[in-house]
């Protein structure tokens, strides 16, 4: 069904000339398929505790298979040196307590999944956003700080390079990651706690191509002006020279750190694009089925990338 997109499951067994595909009725009777789909469950439908309980797990209906897959993803693959942390949205408009609404996203409604991916698009680790009460957040560790620590727990001490956007970046997080022998680079909001106030827009007005930098021990923050101000926090690149840098056409010249960030930050988007290229998910009011379909597509993609990393020559479509 991932290669033959229809609007609903019933269309696969339709006898209308427009939809008719002999493969599906020849393989399985429609009623049997829907009977199996109806009873697709992963745990008994008895909540283990009250939702008001701090120990309540919003993902309990699918937690076992989610953790099993997550552990296997890490067990069977050694990721590349450069990794990216980002979020994806699994489109879902039904009812679930941790459903997100993000108006600026193409998929405005859905389940938010945080991923750690390498350059192939391999999902090495992942976690689902379940609300602030379920994340690793304390007074000292913010929500996003805890999410990143959860994602990188299996690559600590190995010298990896992590790229992230301004949703996750903070000086406190970068200090914490350095203690875990992980280098990092990411865009950052200029008003994050620990950022130098003297490079904020109110104090310095930059022209196109201007670069301003500040260095504190191992951390460097760069403010670069193109069409708008871009702030980058890093500890694995030498800070660029200050000044105004434009080419003969008057375009701002990108610092090396910006080019490096752009080259590596898209790993999670690449993974999401490949997962959705032959997606099997269809409309459903059951969030467990929608998330399971996404996990199944992701598992097939990871298996294909393992095949490719071992010298396999098949295409993604042929592998599926």
Key terms for this structure?
29% helix; 320 residues; PiggyBac transposable element-derived protein domain-containing protein; elongated; PGBD; alpha+beta
Task: Offer a concise description of the structure.
The chain is of the alpha+beta class and 320 residues long.
Q: What form results from the Cα inertia axes?
A: elongated
Q: Tell me the radius of gyration.
A: 23 Å
The number of helices is 9
Q: Give the helices and strands as they follow along the chain.
A: HHHEEEEHEHEEEEEHHHH
User: What's the number of structural domains?
Assistant: 3
Spatial gap, N to C terminus: 11 Å
Low-confidence stretches: 135-139
Beta-strand percent range: 15-25%
Biggest sheet: strands, sense, closure?
A: 10 strands, mixed
DSSP, total strands: 10
Describe the structure.
Mean pLDDT is 88; it is low at 135-139. The protein has 9 helices and 10 strands. Strands 1, 2, 3, 4, 5, 6, 7, 8, 9 and 10 form a 10-stranded mixed beta sheet that branches. With 320 residues, it is of the alpha+beta class. It folds into 3 domains: 1-37, no CATH class; 60-165 and 265-320, no CATH class; 184-262, no CATH class.
SSE layout:
Blueprint: H1 23-27, H2 30-38, H3 63-75, E1 82-91, E2 100-101, E3 109-117, E4 123-128, H4 143-151, E5 161-164, H5 171-179, E6 183-187, E7 210-216, E8 219-225, E9 229-234, E10 243-244, H6 256-264, H7 267-277, H8 287-309, H9 316-319
Helix pairs in contact: 7-8
């Amino acid at each position: 069904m991932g290669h033959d997109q229809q609007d609903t499951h019933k269309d696969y067994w339709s006898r209308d000339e427009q939809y008719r595909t002999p493969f599906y009725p020849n393989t399985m009777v429609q009623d049997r398929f829907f009977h199996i789909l109806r009873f697709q469950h992963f745990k008994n439908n008895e909540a283990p505790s009250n939702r008001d309980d701090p120990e309540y797990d919003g993902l309990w209906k699918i937690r076992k298979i989610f953790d099993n897959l997550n552990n296997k993803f890490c067990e069977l693959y050694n990721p590349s040196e450069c990794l990216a942390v980002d979020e994806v949205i699994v489109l879902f408009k039904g009812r679930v307590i941790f459903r997100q609404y993000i108006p600026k996203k193409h998929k405005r409604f859905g389940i938010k999944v945080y991923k750690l991916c390498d350059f192939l698009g391999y999902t090495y680790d992942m976690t689902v956003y379940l609300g602030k009460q379920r994340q690793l957040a304390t007074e000292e560790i913010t929500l996003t700080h805890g999410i990143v620590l959860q994602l990188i727990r299996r690559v600590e001490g190995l010298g990896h390079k992590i790229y992230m956007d301004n949703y996750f970046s903070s000086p406190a997080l970068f200090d914490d990651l350095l203690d875990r022998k992980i280098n990092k680079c990411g865009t950052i909001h200029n008003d994050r706690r620990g950022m130098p106030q003297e490079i904020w827009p109110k104090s310095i007005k930059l022209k196109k191509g201007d670069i301003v930098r500040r260095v504190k021990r191992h951390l460097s923050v760069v403010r670069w002006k193109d069409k708008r101000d871009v702030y980058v926090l890093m500890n694995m690149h030498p800070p660029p020279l200050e000044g105004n840098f434009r080419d003969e056409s008057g375009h701002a010249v990108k610092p090396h750190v910006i080019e490096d960030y752009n080259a590596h930050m898209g790993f999670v988007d690449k993974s999401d694009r490949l997962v959705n290229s032959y997606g099997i998910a269809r409309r459903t009011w059951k969030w467990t089925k929608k998330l399971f379909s996404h996990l199944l597509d992701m598992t097939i993609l990871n298996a294909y990338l393992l095949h490719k990393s071992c010298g396999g020559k098949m295409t993604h479509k042929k592998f599926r």
